[in-house]
Specification:
With 231 residues, the protein is an alpha/beta fold. The protein is built from twelve helices and nine strands. Helix 10 crosses helix 12. 38% of the residues are buried.
Length: 231
């Protein structure tokens, strides 16, 4: 399988890197060409445009920062749909961005009309998990298309969870984001209470971590809040 990967930001660079590390033939593209340099050094090929990337790929992955960016890259002039349309053997677009359900279904219908397979595969778990290849992958779309790409998806993350039809992964991803933000606010309130109570915040962090009030968000985000690097 020839893979193309568009979007080499905080998450995308690690997802693409996992494909390269696991022996897939990968062509990459990003508006910031410098972002591709580490992947090219490890064996990826660099495309100069979306069309050039699509011409070198059977399956195109995207990991982009917003619905607007996804629409521009996928449905815009010279974009993924235009470049993959009408092949004798159907190409596949797999979006690993966080997108809303309506946009996912709209773009999916556009792809189907042009003979392109579609999967949504947003990820959850954070940058550090993406870096190690154990970020959770949430898949929506036709099951046979998922099965055909299961090996590549497993190369980028663990576990890979098949959620259901196209659009279903967008829903569960928003739910997980909602829960993460709730936990983040709660963790911040807890640390503020500890500070106002005169506690050592490092000790308070560890006590919460070892308690029934612990959470994944506390273990990951509270640490960076306390060391001053939270952004």
């Amino acid at each position: 399988m020839r893979c193309g990967f568009i979007g080499l930001g905080h998450i995308g660079k690690f997802l693409a890197g996992s494909l390269v590390r696991n022996g897939f033939e990968v062509t990459v593209y990003d508006l910031n060409a410098d972002a591709a340099a580490p992947l090219v050094a490890k064996g990826a090929k660099l495309a100069g445009s979306i069309k050039e990337l699509c011409d070198a790929s059977d399956t195109v992955f995207t990991c982009l920062p917003s619905p607007r960016a996804i629409d521009a890259v996928v449905a815009g002039s010279g974009g993924v749909i235009e470049s993959l349309a009408g092949r004798a053997t159907r190409a596949t677009w797999i979006d690993m961005s966080t997108n809303d359900q309506d946009e996912t279904l709209r773009l999916g219908a556009m792809c189907e009309a042009k003979g392109i397979n579609v999967l949504e595969s947003p990820v959850t778990g954070g940058v550090h998990k993406a870096a190690h290849g154990d970020i959770t992958v949430l898949v929506g779309g036709e099951q046979d298309v998922y099965k055909a790409h299961e090996k590549a998806l497993n190369a980028m993350g663990q576990p890979v969870l098949y959620i259901g039809k196209l659009g279903s992964a967008a829903v569960i991803k928003v739910i997980t984001n909602m829960l993460a933000f709730i936990h983040l606010v709660a963790a911040g309130e807890a640390l503020m209470l500890a500070k106002r109570g005169g506690l050592d915040l490092g000790v308070a962090f560890e006590a919460i971590k070892q308690s029934s009030g612990n959470s994944f968000v506390h273990e990951t985000e509270s640490q960076v809040i306390l060391n001053g690097s939270y952004n």
